[in-house]
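Translate sequence into structure tokens.
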Amino acid sequence: MPQVSERTKLLGTETAFDVLKEVEELTRRGKSVMNFCIGQPDFDTPEYIKEGAIKAIKAGKTGYTPSPGIPELREAVAQFFSKTRDIDVKPEWVVVACGAKPFIGYTILSVTDPGVGHEVIYPNPGFPIYESLIRAYGAVPVPLPVLEAKNFSIDVDYLEKLINERTRLIILNSPHNPTGGALDKDTLEQIADIVKRHENIWVFSDEVYSSMVYEGKFVSIASIDGMQERTIIVDGVSKTYAMTGWRIGFATNPKLAPYLARWVTNTDSCAPHPNQYAALTALTGPQDDSKRMIERFRLRRDLIVDGLNKIEGVRCIKPKGAFYVWPNVTEACKIVGAKDSEEFRKRLLYEAGVAILSDIHFGHKNEGEGEHVRFSYAASEENIKEGLRRLKAFIEENRV
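Result follows.
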């Protein structure tokens, strides 16, 4: 029989969807589950955005578009990036794709060659698709610890030690999934100083949570002098406008834009035509709905952090952005006799009906950091309160 390729056998996945299958199966059996495992806003897409798509469909905007995206959307994205990143972005430097995620792969493919040892540094814990695609496309993944001990930031000195003549790409994610940490300007300037000393290093800056910064102002590494030319900025409409299923993301880089567009041509041809008009409507229309959603996330953040820190065995740093918390459950695991965070996660789901993700879903454990789990607080206040109640009861009732 024909065989499946080794790269396909070893291809990783976004494990939140695996846990979601468990949740759906338990729910189908009638079990009540409070679901905090998926990073998806629980709000509906605002009506004015839906109307923008409907209007486009009725106007016949249903065929192919240029691979980089419709000119109107590229112009709007250029203005959006220019305003929110304090840089000058031209429309021809913008590429639109089926969500922000494809740009991870497009960038790796554009700046590394397979089988020659090119290295990509990526955050750990981090979005699992980073490591998955680095391996699948023939580069070498090099994890960069994101540390609770540094308030979910990175050790810049350690980063510098990881860099060598084989390094081609550094992936940054701020605000960060899964910890909610955000890199401040001082840290980004230190990273930029290191990068600028190396001719062949690009930076992929995953900024899909840029609008969800609750402490201070969002800063992009591209805004630092000399960094825009070598930074691929990536954002999208999924999180900010509750449009996860519309699958529209965008990236910008002056040099790489034509190559990213060519990868779009070779994969999806173009992003869905009417959905591009929905994204255009989102970016150029009233921002009140988005601002209200983000303010609700801020309130939920405070609710879940305060609640977690009142539960025995749980310690949680208040995140600066996104809609995730990354509590330390080392002591909670000991209290209930769980060997690690994954066993804790499974027992919490099947015994208490609370769905979360463990640290192994986001890479490997960093030495000395203990056990962690991720809650997404893109859930209603009522569900957060009930989830916290169930977590507290689970720990109290399962002492060993």
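Note: The radius of gyration is 21 Å.
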